Amino acid sequence: MIAAKDNSPHLTPEEYFAWEETQLEKYEYIEGHVYAMGGGSVNHGRIAIRLTALFEAHLEGSGCIPGNSDIKINMLETENYTYPDASVTCDDRDKNTPNFFTYPCLIVEVLSKSTEAYDRGGKFRIYRQNPALIDYLLVSSTQIAMDLYHKNDAGEWIIINYQEGDTIELKSINLSFPIEQVYRGLNLTPED
């Protein structure tokens, strides 16, 4: 998704929730300011749908809950809320919050030109403060490529770069799949 700052006044989290319910679009909430979530490319949408469907099928009956871009993430110990393209929580505490996850073990962002730098930098710096997060997957919409930020058993973040022919391994949900499964039939061009 593409975020653009809205010119609305500074809001409290409670005001944000009430205000967003009256809006036609979704808005992220960072440090009291709202950011409109614009649409992405066709590839962006298809990739997000495929990943969410893959997670849903794999996790059925597991107690884990996959989320799509309609599920907000509350950035732990902050009053900030984002809309990643996909997420998964396996934490029982998230079963008691109907509007957002706070303890995701997996977060996925499909990259757009306008948000890639933020997704790799500032957003990841905030997300990785959450002790429940194990995997942060960044997915290209213009080429067969994914970057996985994985927290190992020592608590260190490592980056694994995947490309054509590779098998993605998401240890957070015990799932492996060929990268091509997500990209089949897409028209990959640098303009997406």
Q: Overview of this structure, please?
A:
It comes from Roseofilum halophilum BLCC-M91. GO terms for molecular function: endonuclease activity. Keywords: Endonuclease, Hydrolase, Nuclease. This is Uma2 family endonuclease. With about 190 residues, the chain is of the alpha+beta class. It is about 20% helix and about 30% strand. The protein is built from 5 helices and 14 strands. It has a 6-stranded mixed sheet, covered by helices on one side. Strands 1-3-2 form a 3-stranded antiparallel sheet, covered by helices on one side. Strand 13 and strand 14 form a beta hairpin.
- What shape does the CA trace take? globular
Number of helices: 5
Mean pLDDT: 91
Helix share, percent: 10-25%
Give, in order, the helices and strands: EHEEHEEEEEEHHEEEEEH
Largest sheet: 6 strands, mixed
Number of strands: 14
* Low-pLDDT segments, ≥5 res: none
The computed structural class is: alpha+beta
